[in-house]
Amino acid sequence: MNYLIYLAHGPAAIKYEALYSLLTYFDVAPAPLATVLVYTDTPDVFQQVLGDRADILYPAVTADQWQAWRGAADMVYLLKIGVLEHAAAHYPGNLLFTDTDTIWQRDPTPIFAQIAQGTRFMHLNEGVMRTGNLLSRKVYRRLQGREFVVGTSRVRIGPDTPLYNSGIIGFQSQDAALLRDITPLADQLYAAYNKHMMEQLATGLRLGLDSPLREAAPYVLHYWNLKAIRPALMRVFEQSANQGLPALRRHLDALDIAGQHTAELTYRNRPGWQRTLLKLVGRQWRIADPDGK
Length: 293
What we know:
Elements: E1 2-8, H1 12-28, E2 35-40, H2 43-50, E3 56-57, H3 63-68, H4 79-90, E4 94-98, E5 102-104, H5 109-116, E6 120-128, H6 134-143, E7 147-150, E8 153-156, E9 162-172, H7 179-192, H8 198-207, E10 213-215, E11 220-222, H9 230-240, H10 245-253, H11 257-268, H12 272-280
Parallel strand pairs: 1-2, 1-4, 2-3, 6-10
Antiparallel strand pairs: 4-9, 5-11, 6-9, 7-8
Helix pairs in contact: 1-9, 4-7, 7-8, 9-10
């Protein structure tokens, strides 16, 4: 069995992101490829748009369980590990977790086929921490040479330590025991340096400790850098969801999230002096809203 997993708990914006991602998934994936598991506190938000579909399940989770999944560091980023442990225990098979801020661009059948053969996936190898983006380099400087406990092993942060983006996590449910090492490792990393990226660093370190990781990036776009699109995305759903799926999709696609993701990354990767100069002349990057709001 194949399972596509979403975590859409809390703010409404997260749920609308998940809905858009699901609509793009249904565009590219053959049916029946996978059962979709949506971990959410408001299933009705999804059912109002998607209807009552047999291939979408909404696992019941208590408030106490949601809190426990945040770990000792009380980090929302750790919820996905708890969700994956629950999914592995209750829905055995090939598990593919995706963040809500994603757009499916290709049929993920090959990903599920490789997971079935034992391959593990994360979204993207962002490069070694030592030469990565500003935050990666800061974390590397703080943690370089330090060792951390991973189950019965230890890992050292060194010059070749890679950072994988955890917008996608794929593995077989029989490997779920690995997950028990991720939250304790993340707790150690957060205690050493309290930065949000520690969850994905812990996930990549553990999943890649005894197996190479593959990238899901060619199949799915992860627009992690585009939080500014959320108000426009929410407005589209609130104003157009009752117009039917074709009209809703036209309005959603008009946001051009993929294009804006690329444009923001281009601006983000400019040298600091260029960004400062562009701000001074009023030409800094801004979200493009088709409604001009």
